């Protein structure tokens, strides 16, 4: 019979309590990083006028910094997708957070418009790397159990976007009639009788610039945590476990990733467009003359959006990602249809805006978790749909703003919401059809192997790999025997014997 090699593999501590503790440490660091990402992205809105004052420019002449940041974001997403597959993720995210901290803090010291644009572009690059790498790392850390953690990751982003205007308000410059910005809107509120505690009328630099320094310090602290994780990484890390040789891809991998990118293009574009123009829509089209009520409608949308992501953490523990996506699509379609039919009805506008924000909240994290069930999401894959996200955030709000200036007395905001809801529903149906198992469904293939159909040997190997993956996470102690043409693997009491 020849020699027989017996390998006995005992589960190490990395697969038990120590492994769980490590995964939670990585997750908490990612949650903190996305909290900082949300603050860094949303701080620009409520402090935009002060930035223009700081560089001695008019607001209309400074709008190109948004384009610079978005362009950097797209470039950073592509760069992060390449780097994430070839270097340690903790080190990569540590450097990206460090660059974000430097760029955000340096923004407050910019006195020249061109220098401000350079800082914004660099911040966009680093945030693009963070967005791409963070989504992939949370999937690699938790595997098939990543659903609730993915929802928590994006809830952290929403929480950061919610907190950022509060920080801007606390440090806001009140020298100009003590005017501050209300939460989640970029519109001045009524004059307050008392001055804010951080007012510095003698300084030429608006006091709201301190908000950038505070956010930069927080992001710097999180970057140090990632450097610490890199120095303390166990020998068997998630990066090693997900090396290209062990990754599996759907037969329709490229098509699924491209369609998901289009899906996020329309989803995020409509989300940003609705949140940006609902205030103007309420005043100009729905004739909501009280600005406080119009601002409250804007706050309602973002408030229900953040609350929905918080609730989704618990729903993701008992519902599959596809179910959450389906509920989101039904909710957005129904609410946007009602908004079109009753476009100037105030009670319906309030109710459907809340439902629309709640329905939109879970779509992005649930979509990533859903596609991960059918194909491996690598750094390059994540870069593709993050680029789609960034393009949607740039194109659709800009297009809507252009149309609002030329088309009067039409509920264009609601038409966009309904159109994108219908189109994303169609896209998800197509993606589900491609990903569904069956004759024309998913056929798995190993990286680097060119196969047109799954033969018996590939099926046995895939079965073996699946058992090994499940054994690393949990084993109930029952013996499992798998026999292939030249290999027998025997599992018993968390021990693997390979003949």
Summarize the structure.
By secondary structure, the protein is mainly alpha-helical.
Your description of this structure?
- The chain is mostly helical.
- It has 16 helices and six strands.
- Helix 1 runs antiparallel to helix 7, helix 3 (64-84) packs antiparallel against helix 14 (379-404) and helix 6 (147-170) packs antiparallel against helix 13 (363-372).
- The longest helix has 32 residues, at 253-284.
- 45% of the residues are buried.
- Residues 1-16, 174-203, 236-246 and 438-499 have low confidence and may be disordered.
How does the SSE layout of this entry go?
Blueprint: E1 7-9, H1 17-42, H2 48-54, H3 64-84, H4 89-107, H5 113-142, H6 147-170, H7 210-231, H8 238-241, E2 248-249, H9 253-284, H10 291-315, H11 321-341, H12 346-360, H13 363-372, H14 379-404, H15 412-435, E3 445-446, H16 456-473, E4 480-483, E5 488-492, E6 495-498
Antiparallel strand pairs: 1-6, 2-3, 4-5, 5-6
Helix pairs in contact: 1-5, 1-6, 1-7, 3-5, 3-14, 4-5, 4-7, 5-6, 5-14, 6-10, 6-13, 9-10, 9-13, 9-14, 9-15, 10-12, 11-12, 11-13, 11-15
């Amino acid at each position: 019979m020849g020699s027989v090699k017996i390998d006995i593999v005992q589960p190490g501590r990395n697969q038990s309590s120590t492994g769980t503790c490590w995964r939670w440490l990585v997750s908490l660091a990612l949650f903190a990083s996305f909290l900082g990402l949300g603050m860094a992205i949303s701080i620009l809105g409520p402090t935009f006028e002060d930035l223009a004052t700081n560089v001695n420019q008019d607001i209309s002449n400074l709008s190109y910094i948004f384009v610079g940041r978005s362009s950097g974001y797209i470039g950073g997403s592509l760069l992060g997708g390449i780097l994430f597959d070839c270097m340690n993720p903790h080190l990569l995210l540590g450097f990206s957070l460090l660059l974000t901290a430097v760029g955000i803090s340096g923004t407050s010291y910019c006195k020249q418009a061109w220098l401000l644009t350079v800082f914004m572009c660099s911040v966009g690059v680093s945030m693009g790397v963070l967005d791409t790498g963070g989504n992939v790392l949370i999937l690699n850390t938790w595997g098939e159990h990543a659903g609730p953690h993915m929802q928590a990751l994006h809830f952290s982003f929403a929480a950061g976007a919610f907190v950022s205007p509060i920080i801007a308000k606390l440090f806001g410059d009140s020298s100009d009639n003590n005017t501050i910005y209300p939460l989640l809107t970029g519109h001045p509120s009524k004059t307050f009788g008392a001055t804010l505690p951080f007012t510095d009328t003698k300084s030429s630099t608006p006091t709201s610039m301190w908000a950038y320094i505070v956010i930069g310090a927080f992001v710097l602290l999180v970057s140090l945590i990632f450097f610490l994780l890199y120095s303390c990484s166990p020998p068997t890390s998630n990066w090693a476990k997900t090396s290209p040789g062990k990754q599996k891809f759907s037969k329709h991998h490229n098509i699924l990733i491209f369609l998901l990118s289009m899906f996020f293009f329309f989803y995020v574009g409509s989300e940003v467009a609705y949140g940006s123009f609902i205030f103007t829509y309420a005043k100009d089209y729905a004739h909501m003359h009280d600005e406080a009520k119009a601002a409250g409608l804007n706050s309602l949308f973002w408030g229900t959006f953040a609350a929905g992501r918080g609730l989704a953490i618990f729903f993701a523990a008992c519902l599959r990602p596809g179910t959450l996506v389906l509920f989101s699509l039904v909710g957005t379609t129904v609410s946007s249809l009602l908004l079109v039919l009753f476009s100037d009805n105030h009670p319906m506008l309030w109710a459907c805006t809340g439902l629309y924000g709640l329905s939109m909240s879970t779509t992005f994290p649930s979509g990533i978790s859903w596609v991960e069930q059918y194909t491996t999401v690598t750094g390059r894959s994540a870069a593709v749909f993050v680029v789609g996200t960034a393009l949607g955030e740039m194109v659709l709000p800009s297009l809507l703003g252009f149309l609002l200036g030329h088309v009067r007395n039409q509920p264009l905001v609601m038409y966009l919401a309904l159109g994108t809801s219908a189109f994303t529903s169609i896209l998800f149906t197509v993606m589900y059809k491609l990903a569904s198992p069956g004759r024309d469904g998913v056929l798995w293939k190993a990286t680097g192997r060119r196969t047109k159909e799954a033969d018996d040997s590939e099926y046995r190997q895939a079965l073996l790999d699946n058992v090994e993956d499940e054994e690393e996470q949990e084993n109930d102690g029952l013996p499992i025997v798998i026999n292939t043409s030249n290999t027998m693997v025997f599992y018993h009491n968390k021990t693997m014997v390979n003949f």
